[in-house]
């Protein structure tokens, strides 16, 4: 089974940033995304790999955006909440 494609607002929620931040990263060609028609689509595995590689934190420093992206994933935060 293939991984589903998600919308910008889904990825923003997954990363804990605003949709505007996601679109800024798209404009800067920073975040892995594919344009399907008029919409940008994302695969969580690619975005999580991008975050783990440190590229998200690096992009945060360059763009000056106020995001709180780190190498942690949604699954990591769920684990923290359960402890």
Automatic annotation (TrEMBL):
Domain of life: Bacteria
Comp. bias intervals (Polar residues): 64-74
Protein's name according to its UniProt entry: Excisionase family DNA-binding
SUPFAM superfamilies in the record: Putative DNA-binding domain
Gene3D superfamilies: Winged helix-like DNA-binding domain superfamily/Winged helix DNA-binding domain
InterPro entries per the UniProt record, alphabetical: DNA-bd_dom_put_sf, HTH_17, SinI_DNA-bd, WH-like_DNA-bd_sf
Ranges for region Disordered: 54-83
Molecular function as annotated in GO: DNA binding
Domain Helix-turn-helix: 7-53
Keyword Cell membrane on entry: no
């Amino acid at each position: 089974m293939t991984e589903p494609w998600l919308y910008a607002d889904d990825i923003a929620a997954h990363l804990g940033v605003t949709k505007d931040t996601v679109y800024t990263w798209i404009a800067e060609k920073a975040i892995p995304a594919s344009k399907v028609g008029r919409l940008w689509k994302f695969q969580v595995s690619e975005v999580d790999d991008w975050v783990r590689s440190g590229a998200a934190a690096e992009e945060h420093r360059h763009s000056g955006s106020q995001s709180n992206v780190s190498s942690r994933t949604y699954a990591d935060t769920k684990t923290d909440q359960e402890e």
